[in-house]
Amino acid sequence: MPESESWVHEATATAEGGHLHTDDGELSTTLASPLAPHCTGLAPEQLLAAAFASCLHHAAVEAANGITDEAHTVQVRAQARLAREPDGRYRADVRASIASVGLNRAQLTDLAHYAERLWPFASDDNRHTLTVGPAEPGAR
Description:
The protein is α+β, with helices and mostly antiparallel strands. The protein contains two helices and six strands, in the order βββαββαβ. It has helices at residues 44-64, 105-118, and strands at 13-16, 19-22, 28-30, 75-84, 90-99, 128-134. Strand 5 (90-99), helix 2 (105-118) and strand 6 (128-134) form a beta-alpha-beta unit.
């Protein structure tokens, strides 16, 4: 990854021995193991969904500040799916929806597009896709 003077935040996490933790201690959890299916813990698709939801929520709250004074009501829901390519590599597909109380459909669409531009997660090799759109009314 190229060095940049414009990095806003940085974090480090370590996964080993069936456990994941961030170096700052804010996250610590067990991991599911492909070699021991009886083990409990978070699976990669759960971690991807949580990471995308967190990143997009951050971006949506920032974007919502320009649309509504109720940015705290922003909700992001993310679904992550993993598929195995014929060559053995994994491919990820993430779908996310953004909702906020009191916004009309056009405002939600603007909010979703703005958030996706802030955190686009573009992939040049099509190994993952991200689709962001407004949540359907009443979806929770």
